[in-house]
Amino acid sequence: LDRSRQALRLEGYDAPYFVAATVRDARRSYVSGKSGALFQSADTRNRLVSVDVRVGDYAMDSSEDPDEFYNQNQKYQPNNLAPLDASPAALRRAIWLLADFRYKAALMSFLTVKAKAVNDPKERLAGSMSREPAFVHVEPSRPWKFDRAPWEAVVRKTSAVFLDYPEVFDASVEVGAVRLTRYMVNSEGTRVRTVDDYYQLFVTAVARADDGMLVQDVLTYYGRAPSDLPALDRVLKDTRDLADRMRRLRAAEVLDPQTVPVLMSPQATGVFFHETVGHRLEGFRQNNEEEGRTFKGQIGQRILPEFIDVYDDPETTHWDGISLNGAYRVDDEAVRGRRAELVEAGILRGFLMGRRPVEGVAQSNGHGRSDGFQRPVGRMANLVVRGRSPVPDASMKAMLLDEVRRQGKPFGLIVETIAGGATNTSSYGFQAYKGQPRIAWRVDAQTGAETLVRGFEIVGTPLSSINRIVATGDRYDVFNGYCGAESGMVPVSAVAPAMLFAEMETQRAQQETERPLILPPPAVGAIGGAR
Predict the structure, then answer these.
(1) DSSP 3-state assignment of 308?
(2) CB-based contacts of 392: which residues, under 8 Å, 6+ apart?
(3) Which is nearest to 358 in space by CA: 299, 442, 315, 399?
(4) Integer Cα distance of 26 and 80 in angstroms
């Protein structure tokens, strides 16, 4: 790093003002199976290195060129592999090749940035990179071993449950464990090593309704320690509940497009806020002309109902005993992660910030995140939505029915789980979001009877939807998962209460129908006694 900072210079051109290098060492164990049998069981390891070289200065540098990391003008591009052996010589050569490539790309990009500034009529109100103090944080490198043998037994026993449910034509059980060690250094004096463990267990089931529509559901368990994953008895019980639910989903009614009041469970609310609010509060979006910049320049203005607060805190590791997948101590720009106050009593207070400043916010709050391949940008970690005037959870359904009857609607909806979501934040196209419920009930306006429904999506525009929030419950829950956006796939969490919306729009899900399997599944005995 010092060698590059001091001597990496092409005569007649600027020298780098900032150089950083990161090595990500990932040890992975993976077990998967179907129909009572093991399909995969393996341990892998890789190390990837990334190098950031910037030309210019903190006020304006090469990183403002959106194509800098994808420069096609250089004929040879080195890969990002780092040695698994403890070989300083091999690692130095890998960094040397990448630093040369990145420096040349930065020179070309800086010329592009300066050229664009010639005709840009806007006053520059934010720089290219925030000045952050040197940070030294070195965590102990503790031993790690994931014993696959007991989890192989869990996979076999759990996947065998579906042999009793011929309607579920495909099902799988997967267990994964990752030890991620990050080494980060930069020319400002920062030296960081972090050690993080991630564990997950998935049970996925797929069936087809009589009308040919595909029906899917999944159980997900996340943790940061092996003890966070459930015991076999609970997994077996939850899996049988899942299989029984699949039977009911196959026979469930397809919901026609409607605009009705909706009561979302805490987990569903977490996904909703992640898509509609969280992504639009990522700081880097406020600088990009191609973004919709929904909340640009609105710090100090009301963007949500006054009874709602939102913040994001990567330093929170658990919520009511549940491990949070998005927790970390240091972000991917080697800045300490800390709580970002986003919305207070409905008033916008800030953004999710990496080291790219935005108008009115000059410093990072430790939310620069990346998968190791892309340049880090401000992203969510642990998004927390709080209600200031909570309603007892037991009263939320009654409030839903009151709202349905007040509007004269035939029914309302209770959404229990959502299969992730998607949102468009760009300036071209529509500012919209959608989420596909996995488990949802239609609630009759007169009787309050709940009927399982399928085949629909919740859609809308963010500003309209968030201003139709009527109330929040007093019970909170956690949604854990992964989010893929501009800087790659990163682990995230969302914590939220149940939430009542006066109105939401539904549309039919985009699912093509297909003829079911011609033959029934083979008899269990023909599989070789899987159980």
Answers:
(1) strand
(2) 473, 474
(3) 299
(4) 14
Asked whether 469 and 439 are in contact (CB, 8 A), the reply is no
Give bridge partners of residue 185 from the DSSP assignment: 21, 191
CA distance 241 to 264: 21
pLDDT digit string, tens, across residues 324-361:
999 999 999 999 999 999 999 999 999 999 999 998 89
Place of tokens 């620069």: 368
pLDDT value at residue 443: 97
> How distant, in Å, are the alpha carbons of 152, 158, 347 from that of 310?
41, 38, 10
Long-range CB contacts for residues 140-143, cutoff 8 Å, separation at least 24: 140/195, 141/181, 141/193, 141/195, 142/195
The whole-angstrom separation of Cα 493 and Cα 479 is 6
Taking each helix axis from N to C end, the angle separating 232-251 and 148-160, rounded to the nearest 10 degrees, works out to: 30
Tokens 């930065």 sit on residue: 106
Q: Rounded CA gap, 32 and 159, in Å?
A: 9
Six-digit token string for 186? 């930069």
- Give me the count of residues in the chain: 531
Residue 465 has φ and ψ, to the nearest 5°, of -70, -45
Q: Two tokens at 302?
A: 């009301």
Q: How many C-alpha atoms does 240 have within 13 Å on its Cβ side?
A: 7
Q: How far apart are CA 315 and CA 179, in angstroms?
A: 19
Q: What is the tens place of the pLDDT at every residue in 22-67?
A: 999 999 999 999 999 999 999 999 999 999 999 999 999 999 998 8
Looking at residue 173, its amino acid is V
pLDDT in tens, 103-143: 999 999 999 999 988 888 777 778 999 999 999 999 998 89
Question: What is the pLDDT at residue 528?
Answer: 47
Is 245 within 8 Å of 217 (Cβ atoms)? yes
String of b and e for 465-486 (b: at least 16 CB within 10 Å)?
bbeebbbbbeebbbbbbbbebb
The band of 530, judged by pLDDT with boundaries at 50, 70 and 90, is: very low
For residues 338 and 314, the answer to whether their CB atoms sit within 8 Å is yes
What is the spatial distance between Cα 326 and Cα 274, in angstroms, rounded to a whole number? 13
**Cα 295 to chain center, whole Å?**
21
Query: Cα separation of 142 and 135, whole Å?
Result: 21
CA distance 330 to 178: 18
For strand 488-508 and strand 456-460, is the pairing parallel, antiparallel, or unpaired? antiparallel
- 105 CB neighbour count, 10 Å cutoff: 23
Residue 327, number of CB atoms within 10 A of its CB: 21
Q: What is the rounded distance in angstroms from the CA atom of residue 150 to the CA atom of residue 90?
A: 37
- Tokens linked to 53: 């070289």
Asked if residue 529 has pLDDT above 50, the reply is no
Residue 155 has a CB neighbour count (10 Å cut-off) of: 28
Q: How many of the other CB atoms lie within 10 Å of CB of 495? A: 27
Give the number of other CB atoms < 10 A from CB of residue 402.
15
Other C-beta atoms closer than 10 Å to the C-beta of 487 total 23
Q: Are 31 and 174 in contact (CB under 8 A)?
A: yes
